[in-house]
Amino acid sequence: MSNMGLKDILVHVDNSRSNPSRLEVALGLAGTHGAHLTGLYINQGPMLPSFAEAQAGKELLDELQTTLRAQATQAESMFKKNTDASNVSTEWRYVEGDLVRVLNQHAAMQILSSSAKAKAMIRAHMQEELRSVFFLRQGVRY
Residues 6 or more apart from 134 whose CB is under 8 A from it? Predict the structure, then answer.
């Protein structure tokens, strides 16, 4: 069995307290393996119950979305501050949508772009949505 190094690393970036250590681990792995590091920030939109969303009105929802986008900008600045000093190739992605679905989609894209064997495996399971993908995320200890 050949030892395949990491080529692409996807790290979920947010504004949580665990984010700096998660990014540090991902950056360390990317540096060690000469891998490309992609930071992915997911804006899930205002997390309101549907009855509250209907009563909130457009102005409040727009204000909440503006706040969420400002948080994304803050996370992007932190990502770039931590990665600019490294020799690691990086990319920033900002996406709006469901956290789990977006993480799975982007993790699958990372796999598809880096491995022919993985492409075949994913095609074989295309009928089922990817539920189990390896990625660095909040709460995982290394």
Answer: 107
**pLDDT value of position 107:** 80
Domain range for 75 is 8-124
CB 133 within 8 A of CB 100: no
* pLDDT confidence of residue 41: 92
Cα(136)–Cα(25) distance, integer angstroms = 9
Q: What are 124's two structure tokens?
A: 């074989």
Q: In what order do the strands lie in the sheet with 90-96?
A: 8-12, 36-43, 90-96
CA nearest to 33, candidates 41, 23, 25:
25
How high is the mean pLDDT in each 10-residue block of the chain (142 residues)? 66 90 91 91 78 72 87 94 92 89 80 55 45 43 42
| Residue 60 located in a structural domain | yes
77 dihedral zone (left: phi>0; alpha: psi -120 to 50; beta) = alpha
Q: What is the CATH number of the domain that holds 113?
A: 3.40.50.620
Has residue 45 been placed in a domain?
yes
